[in-house]
């Protein structure tokens, strides 16, 4: 009986370890809408989280949907929260230009800090229209 308990415990530990390894997820930013104009990404991020270290964000844009012309987008990492809030791209880092949208730009969360993403197309217009979100992986 004790032996069964021990092996049961070992199996539980093994399952926990496997679940841990598999917990890193790949997330399509925006879900079905992908990375596009007209989606509120702050709301999307709130629903798609929580995010963890090791998770990968996939920014897919351009020619994704039938009947829609490929809109140019890009991906910037904003300098800080204030720049993010104001869609101020000074000091922002370009992560992916419009050509990276197909099949998609992948960003793996490696640091335990707030990451501020935004689209820089249209002199801040896309950002102000909602193409921005923050992620703080745990
Ligand atoms: Cu855009």
TrEMBL record:
Keyword Nuclease: no
Signal peptide: 1-24
Gene3D superfamilies with a match to the protein in the record: Cupredoxins - blue copper proteins
TM annotation in the entry: none
Alphabetized SUPFAM superfamilies for the sequence: Cupredoxins
InterPro entries in UniProt: Cupredoxin (IPR008972), Phytocyanin_dom (IPR003245)
Keyword terms of this UniProt record: Signal
GO molecular function: electron transfer activity
Annotated ranges, domain Phytocyanin: 25-138
PANTHER family for this protein: GLYCINE-RICH PROTEIN-LIKE (PTHR34052), OS06G0216700 PROTEIN (PTHR34052:SF1)
Full protein name: Phytocyanin domain-containing protein
Source organism per UniProt: Selaginella moellendorffii (Spikemoss)
